[in-house]
Amino acid sequence: MRVALPDFTTLSAARRSLRASLNARRRQVPPQQRAHISQLVAQNVDRSLQLRSGWRIALYAALPWELDAAPLIALAESRGCRVFLPRIDRRRASSAMRFVPRCGPWRYNRLGIAEPQGSESLGARWLEVVFLPLVGFDRRGVRLGTGGGFYDRAFAFRHLRQVWHAPRLVGLAYAFQEVDRIEAAAHDVLMDAVVTEEGVIRCTTG
Prior knowledge:
This protein is α/β, with parallel strands linked by helices. The protein has a single domain (30-202), classed as Rossmann fold, CATH 3.40.50. Helix content is 24%, strand content 21%. The chain is built from 4 helices and 11 strands, in the order ααβαβββββββαβββ. The protein has a 7-stranded mixed sheet with strand order 3-2-1-6-9-10-11. Strands 4-5 form a two-stranded antiparallel ribbon. The chain has a two-stranded antiparallel ribbon with strand order 7-8. Helix 2 packs parallel to helix 3. The radius of gyration is 16 Å and the shape is globular.
């Protein structure tokens, strides 16, 4: 069952309502089902996206109610990819997102998300594929996130490109997180594809 976007007078109110609804559904997924679906998503990536040795791949450390990225991390590493995770640098005014190798020491940020603390980091422009967490999505590639805007700021440079859209942005989601339509905000960076337990959805930009 897909969740329709509520008819509110403002974009922000509609997004808050939709975000709350989808977050509630994510929290209802039993751990065993979450683990099974996370494996299916990794298998769909393996069949369709053909990760290559040497690629710089960004993933994420999942919160307990998010789709678990651990099976896909293991897959990417088995294919010889270099795996990076996001880290928020709050020393900068824009709270810039950098991407840090998965190895080394960790700490939890104020949102409860585990972040690697190594000294090496990579800018968003130098990644081949980025797998993003999300709260909701539509088939045009509009992504509803948690509201922090970190990914949109990190990949805002894609708005300036007419043809080349690297890195490729791929959302990871439960199938029920698909929405008929999400009104895009000016700052939204569209995804190229979304992978669910049901398969790979190629978005408008993909």
